[in-house]
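Good day; I would like, with your permission, to put a structural problem before you. The record follows directly beneath this note:
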Amino acid sequence: MQSDYDRLFAVLETQEEIKVLMNPFISAYKSDAMPQLEGQIASAKIGLARLASPQLYYVLSGNDFTLDVNNPKEPKIVCVGNNSPR
């Protein structure tokens, strides 16, 4: 999110899974609707900033286990929690 828009959108446009989600941003950029684009980007940054925490970085940084939850030789329990404000 901190890259310049040319580089950021060039990379994000190549990702088929999110291409449709990026369309409003890229369309505003290509149409030179910078006030609209800045508003869209600011909204996205607010949501992403909520995820920035040392605790989350710690949890996501390790390689303690794999996520092959269907492997009968190495069974796992998946626990999903929710923190509404985040």
